[in-house]
Specification:
The complex is a heterotrimer of chains A (320), B (563) and C (325). Chain A is mainly alpha-helical. Chain A has 13 helices and no strands. Chain B is of the alpha+beta class. Chain B is globular. The two termini of chain B are 48 Å apart. Chain C has a single domain, classed as MetI-like (MetI-like fold). The longest helix of chain C has 37 residues. Classes of the chains: A mainly alpha (320), B alpha+beta (563), C mainly alpha (325). Chains A and B meet through helix 5, helix 7, helix 10, helix 11 and helix 12 of A and helix 1, helix 9 and helix 17 of B.
Chain lengths: 320, 563, 325
């Protein structure tokens, strides 16, 4: 198991470093002069190139070193949990991220849980009623909601549930998963990815139902629900969990739109702040966190395969 | 199946745990205030009032402020300063100045040396008196470049030693002398008859300097954070700040020396989406909103809320022209671009119901109709004629318009470029909304920059000094080092005259006339005050610094607020 | 020296491969036509393309023309979808937005499928280290959220590129360099393509892996046909079905990503209309002028739904095994 995890990590780690290098290079050459960004609010030429004060600060921040040295330094410090200082407010980037990250993660986890608990059963129901009205209703509904972008469905739900039928308070900020404030954002977060999961679950069930052993089970005269829960569901979960990994990944990063619309102080909002203020040390930190999380999610998905499908257990022991 | 359900259980537990740590803002109400000695002491003696009767005011901030230092002089965080910091002298909207930290002031006959006396009752929230050293230290700290005070030149320029301090070459101001614990003497380089009006603000109100300034003469990081228990001078004091979510809470300051504050608690929440903020106001989830107007605000909330029933401020919004960048370095191009624009149209689009009036000249908001210059002429034919003389007309550089991030400014800018397109056929323009702050480094890029400028009291030469004098930050950055020696001379002469001398205004008008023939700005709007409070908020009024006047009087009529 | 015809005989009994292919396509098309939702989606997509191409010539108003006397009007006989805050006709803008969306999504789909097909077939055909490296990179790319990538690219590339274009214009006076909307478009397309090619590569790789060991491919290899010919002639045509399905889904998601980027203010810049930036403008006043939000949002929603139904229909039509259930 440990060997398996290590192998997986070996596969991902260089990738994360490569992507980080690309993003760092983009920011380094295209992002602008960090010192000028730091002092962009002041109409002073104290911190402009040529001024000794500027040069001194540049030296102090290590900005005169070659690109790769600076990148290596960044990675080395990042590994120790130091992501540098934000250019806009001079605070440690790590501080902002450690405040924002649990929020984004809890939204992603809660939305994933909702998606799993609602989406998989709906997909199964649709498959069992293939081409009948429940199937059409569920699939049609899923496709419909998939078509509406997050930034449209969010305000529409707000108008509907807060103004037209005022049953909920206007959500703003983040007060935790189990509060009324979270109902609308979580619904919005879950509704689009759920469509994908429903479809995935449906087609997986359809595939499984045509397998011989299900037919055997049915022929044995087992009650239908026993057949479904005992024999059909488990193999269905493998492709669905793969899909859930993708969904989780997208939720982690895709909360960008969600957090902007609802003013949720998560990673997405930090990324937006980073864009607005040209604060690329913050942006870089966010990218790093997102990359790490994506890697971990994929790792978790990989690990969970053998749990779900014993046939894959060998894969864990053997080479990848 | 057992494995699957255990995976799900683990997932759910993870959600629980994370939601517990990921929700700092949910806890504050139950937590005992960390910085409220009086509140905790008072509790055993008198039983806590029932929760329903608690007067809790909620204010919406349009941005998440990570920096709540009172020494920044800009940004949305300073709009709440008067809640927790007392002004030096308080200014209201009608030009009255009332004592605050400074109980009295006087000047030498030539207006070069001023003496300010601190109110002996004035104390910080830790009980220690506000001393002359605190004022001197605060002002010295504000001038340091690393403090990043955005408006310090409005208040303190002209004091002996100011220039060295803002250049980062000195940490002290020799022009400020502490006579005794409650007396300050200020020496100016040139006479200024209105110094007391200039320094009448919350933006340089005294802070406890032993707390705010370190041994190196620079600001101590985060000294203002509620966790560090700052000694504040205002009627309320912070008990909780979450700078990551933009949430903060204030309770009455037990040592406040003025009238007793009427609210039990003030909450500031950050809501960045204007439409959400409006919805929260409508539903009674918030009481005061410091965001900009949306096109719909008037229809939703009416004239009282928008503030159209108030007279405009002396603050104007202008599209400044950077004359150092092509095509603006050619006066003919500038003339054409200014004349092609109809400010009325811009105003109507951005402020269909006000508040304020369409922009005209720089001085009209102060001097009124009777003695102002003619506003810049909007004349498409003249604009075209001037454009024919423009040396860039065949190879027009792209024109960048910056400072358009708020919805109203963006609307006005859209009208602006559309008029250029219709009148002059100028096609290529680009908005740079993110660049709401302009540094010298950006001068090479941006030709047009929307920003506000103005004076905090009705005085014509001060207005010009802050906007078009070559020493002003506005002229140096947004106008690309605009420098007309005749304009500077006239402004400097006017500033030294007694406010009662009619020549003060006449010289300013003369200077303004020169500025207008340089075609360096396109007027947009003379701003009205943004009121933005619901009818159940009582005694709410703001001054020109956007500060709440007499914050201790701020009150709530809970019977009117929807539950 | 007639390997091609030999293979045709090998693959089949009596009918040539070409004829059989035509038959399969016709069957698939018939199946597609039986699917009502798919037919409806095709109609919607055709209408979209029509308006994207001819729409701007049909509308009576200029999508940029401001008329302040008719600011913020609700829908009326003159302006079917009303006017926005600057008095511009919303319908004309939505139609021009269709052009933006179509252009972006078509180019994205074409470019990303090309890249994906090339990478996927190389990976699948050669296998081994090449495969490992290419798939490692594909997975990595797929895992990286495209919106974040878009943000980073737009923030870092836009300013220098726009400065470069301006310099080029001033030195050459070539009006092409004046079209900053071209830069927007190019950036948006690059950002989306950079991530969108991955599913194609994965898809093609698995198809190629499956087909690689079929008899006719082995035979072709034994006959010493060049690799390139084998891949293009015998392998890719077999994989084209799933690619078409993916293309249809890709159209929809490219449109969504485009509008998301524009919504965030890093895609198509105003005043050039894109559904995303129109939604962004409309959001500010959804309570009082809902038509400003609803018009672009509904069209965008309709299009993405149509493309996903079409993708479903194509999937059922081209992969008949599933159709039978």
């Amino acid at each position: 198991m440990i060997r398996f995890i290590l192998l997986r990590l070996l596969r991902w780690l260089p990738g994360v470093l490569l992507l980080l290098l690309i993003v760092y290079a983009l920011m380094f050459y295209g992002g602008g002069d960090p010192i000028q960004i730091m002092f962009s609010r002041e109409a002073t030429d104290l911190f402009q190139p040529g001024n000794p004060r500027y040069e001194a600060l540049k030296d102090k921040m290590g900005l005169n070193r070659p690109f790769l040295v600076q990148f290596g330094d960044y990675v080395w410090k990042a590994a120790q949990g130091d992501l540098g200082l934000s250019l806009a407010d001079g605070r440690p980037v790590m501080e902002s991220i450690s405040a924002a990250f649990p929020i984004t993660l809890s939204i992603a986890l809660a939305a994933t849980a909702i998606i799993a608990l609602v989406g998989i059963p709906l997909g199964v129901i649709a498959a069992l009623n293939q081409n009948h009205w429940p199937d059409n209703l569920i699939l049609g509904g899923a496709l419909f909601f998939w078509g509406i972008p997050t930034f449209v469905i969010a305000p529409l739900l707000m108008v509907l549930l807060c103004l037209q039928f005022p049953i909920l308070p206007v959500p703003h900020g983040w007060t935790g998963v189990f509060t009324v404030n979270a109902i609308i954002p979580l619904t919005v977060a879950a509704i689009r990815p759920m469509a994908i999961v429903i479809r995935q679950a449906r087609s997986a069930v359809l595939d499984v139902l045509s397998e011989d052993y299900i037919r055997t089970a049915r022929a044995k005269g087992l009650p239908e629900w026993v057949t479904i829960t005992k024999h059909a569901l488990r193999p269905v979960l493998t492709p669905v969990v793969t899909q859930m990994g993708v969904v989780m990944t997208n939720l982690l990063a895709g909360s960008l739109l969600l957090e902007i619309v609802f003013g949720i102080p998560g990673i997405g909002r930090l990324i937006r702040d980073g864009i607005l203020n040209n604060d690329y040390s913050l942006l870089l930190g966010c990218v790093l966190v997102v990359l790490t999380m994506v890697t971990l999610t994929n790792l978790l998905v990989d690990i969970s395969y053998p749990l779900l499908d014993p046939r894959l257990k060998q894969a864990q022991r053997g080479d990848v | 199946m057992r494995r699957i359900s255990s995976v799900l259980t683990v997932l759910l537990i993870a959600v629980f745990v994370l939601s517990a740590c990921g929700s700092p803002a949910a806890v504050p109400a139950e937590n005992p205030p960390t910085n409220a000695p009086a509140a905790t002491e008072a509790q055993p003696g008198q039983p806590a009032a029932p929760a329903a009767a608690e007067k809790i005011l909620t204010i919406i901030s349009p941005t998440v402020n990570k920096d709540l230092s009172p020494l920044r002089g800009g940004g949305t965080a300073v709009r709440f300063l008067s809640l927790w910091w007392a002004p030096t002298i308080q200014a209201d909207r009608t030009g009255n100045f009332t004592p605050a930290v400074f109980a009295s002031w006087s000047s030498s006959p030539d207006f070069k040396v001023w003496t300010f006396k601190i109110d002996p009752k004035a104390v910080f929230s830790d009980g220690s008196p506000i001393t002359a050293d605190d004022v001197k230290g605060t002002w010295e700290l504000s001038t340091q470049p690393l403090t990043k005070h955005q408006r310090v030149s409005l208040f303190l320029s002209g004091i002996v030693g100011y220039d060295e301090a803002v250049a980062g070459n000195a940490t002290t101001l020799p022009g400020i002398v502490v006579k005794d614990a409650s007396t300050l003497e200020i020496t100016l380089k040139a006479p200024d008859p209105v110094l007391f009006k200039r320094i009448a603000t919350n933006l340089i109100g005294p802070v406890k300097i032993s707390q705010a300034r370190g041994a190196d003469g620079q600001e101590v990081a985060d000294w203002w954070h509620a966790d560090n228990k700052p000694a504040v001078s205002g009627p309320y004091m912070p008990v909780l700040m979450d700078i990551n979510t933009g949430y903060s809470e204030y309770v009455p300051n037990p040592y406040w020396w003025g009238p007793k504050p009427k609210l039990d608690r003030i909450k500031i929440v950050a809501v960045e989406d204007g439409a959400t903020a409006a919805l929260m106001m409508q539903k009674g989830q918030a009481d005061i909103n410091f965001s900009n107007d949306l096109p719909t605000t008037f229809d939703q909330f009416g004239p009282e809320y928008v503030g159209t029933n108030e007279s405009p401020d002396f603050v104007i919004q202008v599209f400044w022209i950077n004359g150092s960048v092509p095509p603006m370095d050619d006066i003919n191009c500038r003339t054409a671009l200014v004349m092609a624009v109809n400010s009325d149209e811009m105003f109507k689009a951005s402020h269909p119901h006000g508040p304020g009036v369409a922009g005209t000249t720089l001085l009209k908001p102060i001097l009124g109709d009777k003695e102002t210059n003619q506003p810049p002429m909007n004349n498409p034919d003249d604009a075209r004629a001037a454009f024919a003389q423009c040396k860039y007309k065949d190879a027009m550089p792209k024109i960048y318009v910056a400072g358009t991030s708020n919805p109203q400014a963006e609307l006005a800018a859209q009208i602006l470029v559309e008029q250029w397109r219709q009148v002059l056929g100028i096609q290529e323009t680009e908005f740079v909304p993110a660049m709401d702050k302009l540094s010298v480094a950006d001068q090479g890029k941006v030709q047009v920059f929307r920003d506000d400028v103005g004076t905090r009291f009705a005085d014509a030469p001060t207005m010009l000094k802050n906007s078009v004098h070559s020493g002003s930050g506005n002229a140096q950055s947004k106008m690309g080092n605009y420098n007309n020696p005749d304009v500077d001379r006239l402004i400097d002469e006017a500033l030294m005259l007694d406010p009662t001398d009619p020549n003060r205004n006449l010289k300013a008008l003369e200077a303004e006339k020169l500025v207008m023939t340089d075609y360096v700005y396109i007027p947009w709007v003379a701003e009205g005050p943004m009121m933005h409070h619901m009818p159940w908020v009582l005694n709410f009024a703001k001054n020109y610094d956007w500060q709440i006047i007499d914050p201790w009087n701020l009150d709530l009529d809970l019977t009117k607020r929807p539950q | 020296m007639a390997p091609a015809s030999t293979i045709k005989k090998l693959t089949d009994d009596g009918v040539t491969a070409d004829e059989k292919a035509i038959g399969i396509w016709r069957d698939s098309f018939d199946r597609l036509l039986k699917n009502k939702m798919a037919v409806l989606s095709i109609a919607v997509v055709v209408i979209l393309f029509f308006f994207a191409i001819f729409g701007p010539y049909l509308t009576p108003y200029d999508f940029l023309k401001q008329d302040l006397s008719i600011r913020g009007q609700p829908p009326s006989a003159d302006h079917w979808l009303g006017t926005d805050n600057l008095g511009r006709d919303v319908l004309s803008r939505v139609i021009y937005g269709a052009r933006t969306a179509t252009l972006v999504s078509l180019l994205v789909v074409v470019l990303s499928s090309l890249i994906g097909v090339v990478v996927g077939s190389i990976s699948g055909y050669f296998g081994g280290k090449v495969d490992f490296f290419l798939m490692w990179f594909t997975d990595l790319n797929m895992a990286f959220p495209n919106l974040v990538l878009g943000v980073v690219l737009a923030v870092s590339l836009r300013p220098p590129l726009s400065r470069w274009m301006e310099q080029m214009y001033l030195s050459t006076l070539n009006p092409v360099f004046r079209q900053s909307s071209l830069l927007d478009l190019a950036l948006v397309i690059v950002v989306i393509v950079l991530v969108a090619w991955c599913p194609y590569a994965r898809l093609l790789r698995s198809q190629v892996m499956a087909v690689r060991n079929y008899n006719y491919v082995l035979a072709a290899r034994a006959l010493g046909l060049p690799t390139f010919t084998i891949v293009t002639k015998y392998i890719i045509p077999n994989a084209i079905g799933p690619v078409i399905v993916q293309m249809s889904a890709g159209m929809g998601s490219a449109m969504l990503t485009e509008s998301a980027l524009s919504f965030l203010g890093i895609g198509i810049q105003p005043p050039i209309p894109s559904w995303g930036n129109m939604i962004n403008e409309g959001l500010r006043q959804w309570t009082s002028a809902p038509h400003l939000l609803m018009a672009p949002a509904l069209v965008l929603g309709l299009m993405t739904v149509a493309f996903s139904f079409l993708g479903d229909g194509l999937n059922d039509a081209l992969n008949p095994r599933q159709w039978k259930g």
